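Chapter review: from sequence to fold.
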Amino acid sequence: MVTELSEILAEHSQPDWSEIFRVKANELGTALTDSEAIRIYKGILESLRGGAGGVNDLVLYQDGRLLKKQTNRIHELLEHIREAAYRGLAELEDS
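The token string follows.
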């Protein structure tokens, strides 16, 4: 999910957000300890925090046209990633 989000963002002129999520995807893939995974999940949730100009506000356009399908997919992925991060934190912190 995180990799797909990063790829969509890169394809649609959002290199900063793409890089943030690419790094998080790589970190998750190489986490060796629970404490490291907890740190990564918390970092993901921090990246998803609301606020003006945040990733949650993204709406994609191309040549002045709204890219509704891609924008909707980004927001679906963000929600799934948020839910997965909370689940991952809960599981690791309970163990």
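Two observations follow directly from the output. The beta strands are 61-62, 65-66. The chain has a mean pLDDT of 88.
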